Amino acid sequence: MRPRSLTAFGFLAPYLLIFASFWLWPIIYSFYLSFMSTRRLPWTFNPKMTWGRVVQDPAFYNALENTLTILAIQVPVMLFLATLLAVMLNSTLLRARGLIRFAFFAPVVIGEAAYAAVFRLMFNTEFGVINKVIESVGLPPVEWFSNPDAAMALIIMAVTWRWVGYNAIIILAGLQSIPQDVYEAATLDRVSPRQQFLYITLPLLKPVILFCLVLSVIGSMQLFAEPYLITNVGGPGGATETLGLYLYRQAFLNLNFGYASAVAYTIAALAVMISALNLWIGRDKT
Amino acid sequence: MSQQNAASRKRAIALHAVIVPLALIWVFPIWMMVVFATRPDSAIFSPKVLLTPGNRFWENFNLLQDDLNFTRTLFVSVVVAVVYTVLSMILTSMAGWALARYKFHGRIAVVGIILGTMTLPYFVVVIPQFILVARDFGLSNTWVALIVPPLFNSLGVLFMRQAFSMMPAELFDAARIDGVSEWKIFLHVGLPLARPMLAALAIILFLASWNNYLWPLLIANDTSMMTAPVALGSLFGLVDVSWGGIMVGAVLMTAPMLAVFVFLQRFFMAGITAGAVK
């Protein structure tokens, strides 16, 4: 590596230009906006209308509660499943490996609009295949789109279906980076496979799982397309309205940019806090 | 020895008893996508359980085209994704090269900022992006608006930085002694060596652009400039719409990506795990 500032900035310039125009400036500008009342022109400095509103808006708290509920259920379930899948996919005993990998990894490339369409039809209350299965075992059909809890469950299932393979890919890469001789030594010492998993695999996987956890938290805090597309913009009656959807409504349907910016910064602060908490809980206690 | 074989056979059976049903559940929605796309709406919305594909794909395709010019939106999506991928690869590989191969003031700061943006929700920038592009520049429903603002990509830069910093310095020093310019060293020595990483990067960037939903939804609402996912989503709420047609749209959006995934799996995996590389 050599000290060549001018050459280096020459190579960096186009990238930094895009960064400055479409990230740096927006970050600063939306912070400024979060103090402005933008309901009518001219915009005026009025944090009461933005930050003041965030802390007492029942619709905001509804969206926050929904988002945190999804986060608290979906993220642990998904990461548990992803770890399980990664371990199973890594097993030397596995047959038809290619096909099975395809099943779990394929959803990763499918766009929200496409899978939202399938889920809407599969979970259709009257004609959907899921309710037909439920009815065939003698249970009443589930009102997936008009029962608030069922709608929430639907969103959680859809997101888990879409993202579990993505996390499994990352965890699988982590598993494959563990040197094989660790296990050989453990096997020679008569350590059972279960104990090998608990005392060798899991501790060595912890950094990778934490990485997935932080990504998933940030992703969940930004959930937008699924409740927009699957449950008709957060329906029924706001039961699946997430923070992302609430921000979208405030900013782009009501054109209330100031208040929406305050919501955006609240989401960012919460995402950072929850991620930091996760990292702190998962830190190496030495 | 035979005892050990019996034990491992038992483990194999247990493994498959768990993973095969799970795998079937996971492919089921993809299978149903094909089933719905090839059946008339009268079959999709009928009390009969429907699990096998039919032969109505082209009829459904025509119904989709009646509802909205879907081939146009696919064309927009392809152009946006291709141009975006090329431009973003140029930007990120150049920046990654600078961060990997040169020592300069502010290098640590630049890397820190790039890492920082990864944890920052997109919502913090989307509102000013919209005000800037749609209101100040009046660029709604244009190619520039669809392609340029999403160009900033932190993962790509970190990935290319990683790729270039793993190359031995002697390779480039030899060229420098011969008086080759830094730009040409990057172009003719660095980039060709990074070809597998560039392939992985291209797949991830293309996929991100192809499936991008929020930004195109905000910036292109004219039917002639809508991307395929936005166009498809706009049909969901309509009363008089062909769901068989919508599913054809879903298949057309998904099938090329599944093909890429199947044939270029190695690069695809490399792209996804790039973020986890420390």
Write a structural description:
- The complex is a heterodimer of chains A (286) and B (278).
- With 286 residues, chain A is mainly α.
- Chain A has twelve helices and three strands.
- Chain A has helices at 5-33, 47-54, 58-90, 97-105, 112-122, 129-136, 148-176, 180-188, 193-221, 225-229, 243-253, 257-281; strands at residues 2-3, 36-37, 44-45.
- Chain A has a two-stranded antiparallel sheet with strand order 2-3.
- The mean pLDDT of chain A is 91.
- Chain B has 278 residues and is mainly alpha-helical.
- Chain B folds into two domains: 2-60, no CATH class; 70-235, MetI-like (MetI-like fold, Orthogonal Bundle), CATH 1.10.3720.
- Chain B has helices at residues 2-37, 41-44, 57-67, 70-101, 107-118, 123-136, 143-147, 154-165, 169-177, 182-193, 195-211, 214-219, 228-235, 243-263, 265-273, and one strand at 102-103.
- The longest helix of chain B is centred in the N-terminal third of the chain and has 36 residues, at 2-37.
- Chains A and B meet through β1, α1, α3, α4 and α5 of A and α1, α4, β1, α5 and α6 of B.
- β1 of chain A pairs parallel with β1 of chain B, so a sheet runs across the interface.
Give a short overview.
The complex is a heterodimer of chains A (about 290) and B (about 280). With about 290 residues, chain A is mostly helical. Chain A has 12 helices and 3 strands, in the order βαββααααααααααα.
